[in-house]
Structures are given as C-alpha cells and as structure tokens.
Fold this sequence. Notes:
The structure holds two protein chains of two kinds.
Chain A: E1 4-19, E2 25-41, E3 45-49, H1 56-63, E4 71-76, E5 79-80, H2 86-93, E6 96-99, H3 113-123, H4 130-143, H5 160-172, E7 178-182, H6 190-207, E8 210-215, H7 218-224, E9 227-232, E10 235-241, H8 242-247, H9 252-260, H10 266-271, H11 302-306, E11 312-313, E12 319-320, H12 328-335
Parallel strand pairs in A: 3-8, 3-9, 6-7, 7-8
Antiparallel strand pairs in A: 1-2, 1-4, 4-5, 9-10, 10-12, 11-12
Helix pairs in contact in A: 3-4, 3-5, 4-5, 5-6
Chain B: E1 5-16, E2 19-31, E3 36-40, H1 47-54, E4 63-71, E5 74-75, H2 81-87, E6 92-95, H3 109-120, H4 125-138, H5 144-147, H6 157-169, E7 175-179, H7 187-204, E8 207-212, H8 215-221, E9 224-229, E10 232-238, H9 239-244, H10 249-257, E11 307-309, E12 312-317, H11 323-334, H12 339-351
Helix pairs in contact in B: 3-4, 3-6, 4-6, 6-7, 11-12
Amino acid sequence: MSEPLVEVRDLVKHFPITSGILIQRQVGAVHAVDGVSFDVMRGETLGIVGETGCGKSTTARLITRLLEPTSGTVHFDGKDISHLKPGQVKPLRKEMQMIFQDPYSSLNPRKTVGSIIGEPFRIHGLKEGKGERKRSVQELMEQVGLNPEHFNRYPHEFSGGQRQRIGVARALALRPKLIIADEPVSALDVSIQAQILNLLRDLQRELGITLVLIAHDLSVVRHMSDRVAVMYLGKIVELADSETLYTQPRHPYTGALLSAVPVPDPELAASRRRQIPGGDVPSPTNPPPACRFHPRCPKVQDLCRTEEPLLSPKDSGALVACHFPLTESEAAERLGTAEHA
Amino acid sequence: MSPLLEVDDLRVHFETEDGLVKAVDGVTFSVDNGKVLGIVGESGSGKSVSMLTVMGLSRAKNARISGAARFDGQDLISASREDLRDLRGNDIAMIFQDPLSSLHPFYKVGRQLVEAIQAHKYSSKAEAKERAIEFLGMVGIPDPRRRFDNYPHEFSGGMRQRAMIAMALINEPRLLIADEPTTALDVTVQAQILDLIARLQNELNMAVVMITHDLGVVAEVTDHIAVMYAGRIVEHADKRDIFRAPEHPYTWGLLQSIPRLDRARDEPLVPIPGRPPSLITLPTGCNFHPRCPYVRPRHREVDPRLEPVPDDPGHRVACLLASDTRRRLWQELAAGKQPEEAREEIVEGGLA
Lengths: 341, 352
C-alpha cells in the first residue's frame, strides 16, 4: 500500500477529574486514550471497533483536532498537527471532515439544506459567486443521491437516511483528503443502513478519499474496512487487515467480540462456542495494571498481571497486544462453522 | 391445547390532526406456552404498538382499537384497568430497551424489587427481600446482598438491564414481552443478556415475545418469527424457514441489506430502495409495492392476505406473487443475482 496520510504515535488523552468547590484539585483522570499508535494509509478505509468507553470516538476527535492530546503526536500529510493553536486549525478543516452518528442533532433545524451543505464554502470563503455556490451545492446533492430541487427545504422535511446523505454532502463539500465517520449508520433503520454504506463506499472509491470508520457494529466495520483496529479501555489490542482479523482473531478480546455478534443463521449460531468475558468493562479512571483485559480474560496467566503486552506481529500477520494469543483452534471455536464460508 | 396468547385481527389507529395513523392494521398471531416468538420490523412497523396494546398500555384518548387479544382465554382489549393491572407484573411482564426509564432513580434497586413482589403477592418484607436477593443473584449481579441497597445510578448499563429483568421475572410470569431488550447494549453485554433470557425462559418455561430490528438476535433466541411491515405481518414462519426459505420480498430485502459476518466480506449489500410509507396515506394494494422490485400492475390494486404457502401450513406470507415464482426468485437472489436481473428473468419471463 501507499504512504500513510495520518501517523498517530503514542497518543494519550486523559480527562482530569476534579473535586472541590472553590479550589479545584485534580483527584484523578479518565484514561480515555492511553498510548495508541497506528497509521492510516492514503485511500484506505481503516475501521476502529470497540465497546462503549474504549476510546474510539476520542481517538477520532484527536485526529481531527477537535481535542488536543495530553501527549503523543498526530501527523497529517507529513505535518505535526497535535499542538496547533486554535487559529492554525481552520485550514486543516479543509483537509479533513467528520460525519456524525445522529442525523437529527447534527443539522441546524433553522437552516435550509442548501445553506447547510454550502456552509463549508462560506466559512472558507470559497465559491463566492452566488450562482456558483448554489451550483456546487446542487452538484453535491446529486452526488449523494438527493434531489437538487430540494435545495430550499429544511432538515425536518427529510427522513433519517436522507439527513445522513446531507451530512455526507457537507463533509464532501471541500473535497477533503480524510473523512472520519463516527457511527454513521447506527441511528438508521436496517433497510436504510445499506443505502448509506453503499454510498460511502462508492464515493470513497470514486474520489479516492481516505476513510476512518468508527463503529460498534462488527459486521458493518468488516464490510467497509481494509484494515481494522480493535480497541479496549484506551488501547489498541489488535490491528490487522479485515479478512485476517475476522477469520483468525488472535487477541482473546477480539475472539470474544466475534463470538458475541448475533449472526442471522440459526445453525451457525448454534455451532459457535460463545466466549463472553464475565463482568463489566473496568472503569477507565482506574484501569487494571499490565494487560488491561487480564481480569476478564479466559487465558490469563501470572505474566499478564505484571507485564503489559506490546502490540507485536503474530502468526496470523496481525499486530496483537497479548502474551498468550488465541490458537488456530481456539479462534475457530469462537467463530463456529459456517457451511458457506 | 389453546395458545397462551392469541391476537386476532388487531387494529390500532390513532386520530391525529394530520389524519388517521394506522399504526397496527390487522395483525394476527399466537404464542404457545414456553415458546419464543420474534417480531422483526423497522421503526414504525407497528411491532411495539401492537404489544403495548396487548398489554393495555396504549389506551390513549385518540386510539381506536379493534380486534381481539386473549391471554389464557381472557380478553385483554375489553378488560378493566384493574384486571389488567393484576395481570401485568404477575402473569405478563415486560422489559424495555432503556432500563433507566423503568427503574425509579430515587429508590434503591432492592426496594423496587420488593415492591414488585408485594404488589402482587402477599409476602412479608423479610421474605420478599430474600427473594429479591435470590433473583438479583440469578440474573448474574455479583454480590447481590450488597447490591440490594444500591441506587440504579450505581449500576452499569448491563447491570441495570439485569436488574430490570429480575424485576420482570420476580413473580414468575407466564409471558414475557421484551421490546428491544439489548439494543442499547454493547455486543458482549448483549450476548450475556440474550443468554440470560434464554436460560430463564427455559427454567421458568415462560413464553416470550421478543421485539427487535436485529435479525441476528432473533436467529439466536426465537422459535418462530413474524416480520412486520407498515402495520401488518407480511411473513410468519418457523425460525429456520425465515432464514433458509424466506418467501416475502421484504424479508429478502432485510436479509440482503445487512452486512453479515457469516458471508464473504465483499458480498455487496442490496439496499431496499425507498423508505417505509407514511402510515396516514398507505399505498393502495400491497403496502410494499412501491419498494418491491417484483411489482406487477395487479399488486397496486389487490391487497394480499397472510396465507399459508402451498406445502407448509405453518409458514404464512402476504404476497401476490405466485409461490413458484417466489421460490425461484429467492434461489436466484441467494445465488448472488441482483434483484433487477432476477426480475427480468423470472417475473417478466411471464411466470407471474
């Protein structure tokens, strides 16, 4: 594959917890993202999966500089953007855009669709001529499958799926190099999800955009992504190309996630051996020492409690942060046997 | 043996300023003792409203309800509020998507469980407390004796859902209605909760109606499945048949529009075109015709009835295509053909 567009190194974001009324003292920190490194290659789709609180959305906000990292660096297109001053961030927005989960709250209800999609042009002083801006907006509407004649309508006149198309059009307006989509379909009905996923995929191929897709739905991430990173409690525990991750999971947490996804096939569902970690995800304020998954891991040994495993290549070709990764047969048990593999 | 729950031609229409909303429009199904029925559909398909009506929870002033719903022979539609209150929480229990809205934030979890017991059964406070602790333990809450004195906000999302299930089951209902019980949960917690419902269903020999939009969830836990679209059941069959030999084009659409872990990664998604109709101005003829790739002129006029397929009385479908045509279409789709290709070859080939 080509060169990286985004390089993330040892990225950390702690949110301080303070106590006291007059004098605020810091009594702890939420370790939202705690030492994460990865690259996003030009033109690829990188999926980030994980459960609530694993730090996937915080990672997205650090890459787009909606948040400033506590430490570590993010290079975008070769340039260090991790500690830009507020005034220096604006030009960056032309290069990277976000698509959000909730198409109901991410569109201003008092603005017409035309002005919502045209907003990025206004902010950056582009397409100044009135006719020119309208034409560009209508081209974008056409491109995402909206009727350009609906230029003057308001968001409430559109369905959930159409609103998400508006969000996509707005993100595309400035022809960014990178789009980060944070749960773009999880608020949509099943029959509409496929429309939006196909749209994102077609646009990405057509325009060569680099896409970071964040989702909790493992099936959606697999379908869309070239490579996938699995996060748990602020860390990446496994990073691999999509096919490898889903057919030969090596981290016990990845195995647990895959065995937990309900599959619409009664026989396959019955053939799987579920390995669901007991208990709840520990609090990110006080994560377990060494391997963060050790209190819930079925393969835990003493080493896991004392020494943190680093992300390193394993037999499957994946990068895995585990001292005792799953074997071929343990992985197979968790996936079950599909007749039509 | 007569079924435990029998719903017959249930209609729930709401009068609104914009017109009559036909939320549920002629729904018939039944659930036997100890069986699990999955009701699958998208937002607005009427799956929740029909079950809320059965529970007597949608008696709004503007609601027009007709048809019958019988629980163990007793009519629920005409039952008095007192009778219904007696049934609910005792013989019939319900769990919802959002556990926070069903647990009172001011009261300790344990106290709410005790109240649920004492509302229906004569029992001393000490007895009720022991039973509450037993049930908290049974649904997998660690250290239930200590947790008994916690407030709901001290529980994690998964634990709240467990506490709500404990509360629903504490009087050992004969029927549990679960409305999207795992939609707000992470996958590993979802798997824990589904396993829990399956285990308790088995132990208590309850009947369960599971309402969900997730085909994976119904594949895991149900015996029978009803697919709803725009206020009606369009297909009703044994679980295996819904996945192996589905007969309704909407069911095909649902199955083919979701990315699946059990299929090739690059298998294209086939979205259902358009979107669900307005429940005020429903399409003429078959409700699904504006989105159906196989529509024939006749389908815009004739309203299909839910009828058994030729050789399987337990498998019912509301579709005007001929049975042979449907089967050949599904074969082609399952083999990877696009809906347009399949239509040209089979429907326009004159078979329909």
